[in-house]
Amino acid sequence: MITTVTRRLLALLLVSSLTIGTALAEVPDAIGTLAPTESQQKAAQDIVERLNYGHYREVELNDQLSKEIYLHFLEELDGNKAYFTQTEINHFNKYQHRLDDGLKEGDLAAAFEIYNLYQQKVESRIQSQLKQLDTFSDDYTFERNDALMIDREDFAWAADEKELDQLWSKRLENSLLSLKLSGKDLADAKKTLKRRLENQLKRITQTRSEDVFQIYMNSYTQLYDPHTQYQSPRSSETFNIRMKLSLEGIGALLQTEDEFTKVVSLVPGGPAAKAGELKPADKIIGVGQDDENIVDVVGWRLDEVVDLIRGPKASTVRLQVIPANATDNSQTQIVSIVRNTVKLEDQAAKKSIVTLNENGEDKKIGIIDIPAFYVDFDAWRQGKEDYRSTTRDVLRLINELQAEDIDGLVIDLRNNGGGALQEANSLVGLFIERGATVQVRNAEGRIDILGDPDKSVAYTGPLAVLVNRLSASASEIFAGAIQDYQRGLVIGSQTFGKGTVQSVTPLDHGQLKLTRAKFYRISGESTQHMGVVPDIQYPSLVDTEQVGESALEFALPWDKVQAVRHKEYSPLSLWLPQLKERHQARAEQDPDLMYLAAQQALFEQMRSVKQISLNEQARKAESDRIEAQQLALENKRRTAKGLKQLEKLSDIPDKEEDPNQDVELVESGRILLDMIELANTAMADVD
């Protein structure tokens, strides 16, 4: 699955202040005025027509939608309300109910007028920052007791430029302080910040009309749903290359968020996923080639950052990132990744065994890790009998594990972003007799039911499916079907919630990725927005406000259609209360499970911070406090397990690739053993 989220080609800036006149005529026209082309005007009309007749959701382009487009466009440009004043917004409000007519006629003048002012104000702010930066002496001390609000989305627009000046003054100070806390002296921090600002100034003057058009069109298309997206000719080329998996890079989907490049998801089996250090919601602030110096990319255009990350196969790229769970931007780390192409075998299913001792007897739980749902389409189309696919590989692994006398089986779909729908469908068939697996409803309301026509079953033993927030699309179809049939337990954390189907429609100018259908489980419930809720839940360290369909603005809602008749393979719903009770008892005693829950609580506490101090000692104290909490949690776990105490967080050893050390896999195995015991007890009672 490739998740599409809001992409801003121009990053907002994180610094400084300048007094800019509030009247529109007083804004300096230092940057050339941008205007739409004829091909863009025609493309706008084409997009209106395609959305009206092709999108899953029926939406009328009228005055009400015009207002929503207007507000979304402003949010895309100035979501933190750092550039425009209320006076300027009052001036633009005349367009609120005119944009619908403009789009139908290919008239883009209003959008370009708004953008041209935005661009002029960004340039003015950068120029101001460069001047104000020179006023900081190299021995400046960050002693004032003030704070910077991190998220101003819900704030009112600034009354005037003076109010914005105060905001930008704080932002400049915060940028310098963050650089200083990351290890630079103030002189180096000023040089770094000056270099960033000069780069940003250069890039803002290189803005093309296509950039404006893409932002504006997506302010319109994303009101239908976040996966419907206009792609410019250049973006289309990049998208098509990525879909073919032929581009040599790190295997990560990126987006721009404010001035940062943010990781959205990792390609299963790709270089970044295999390296294991880069995570969704991490922010990339620097890129280096092999042993060369790292280039600061804060404020760069997304396409330029992507170009810098790409490179020859087998070469190394070093990324300086702010981890997703960092309390502020001063906490960074370096991640090294060897570039490569994503190969089919890198995404292939793999097996392992977790050994658990129960009442003095060793029990073996088979694990099949499926990073993605894959199929060699070329070999399949050619009719080759030995083509590779998820289902074929898993069938082989099941046979191998059964030959080793496993007591139960866990299908590990954590971080599996989806893939070939046909493979999710046929994989369900390995565990059930013939039956429906998923319903697909198109824009016209027609529902197609996909299913397994083969009555044979590869595995009839105890089964669990392990999922997390990054399990999406085809993963959710498989997990949902196993849960609906009560063929096995679904364990882990709530899945992503990607339950829509997109197709790409070429335009004379660029292309349109359009949501055409929606997935529903055989229970009738959609996987959209809500995903699959596990029978037994684990704490999630992924921020659900940042990652997942429910985190995306304008996501299609969860709903239901009529259920498909299906059998239930076990009385799991009857056993579930006891299984939850036993799991909870372990969660309150097991050091690793307690540590997992404590980590989740700490991360939620860190994410709840709405403002950061501009006082250096206060910032250091807060950082030290959180690090001490993290170290205390780790040492509490180690003490309970009889391990040596650590003196600092950096002493924590790298995670082992051993399933017997994976707390979630181990606990899933224990839950399976509980289920086996309950099933045996039930059978004995019947006898």
From the alpha-carbon coordinates, what is the Rg to the nearest angstrom? 27 Å
The shape, in one word, is globular
Average pLDDT reading: 87
Strand content: 15-25%
Query: What class do helices, strands and sheet pairing give?
Result: alpha+beta
Please tally the β strands and state the result: 19
Number of helices: 19
The major sheet is characterized as: 6 strands, antiparallel
Question: Could you estimate the helical fraction of the residues in percent?
Answer: 25-40%
Distance between the termini: 48 Å
Residue runs with pLDDT of under 50 for 5 or more positions: 1-30, 239-247
Overview of the molecule:
By secondary structure, this protein is of the alpha+beta class. Helix content is 39%, strand content 16%. The strands form 4 sheets. Strands 3, 4, 5, 6, 7 and 8 form a 6-stranded antiparallel beta sheet that branches. Helix 6 (161-181) crosses helix 7 (186-204). The chain is globular. It starts with 37 loop residues before the first helix and ends with a helix.
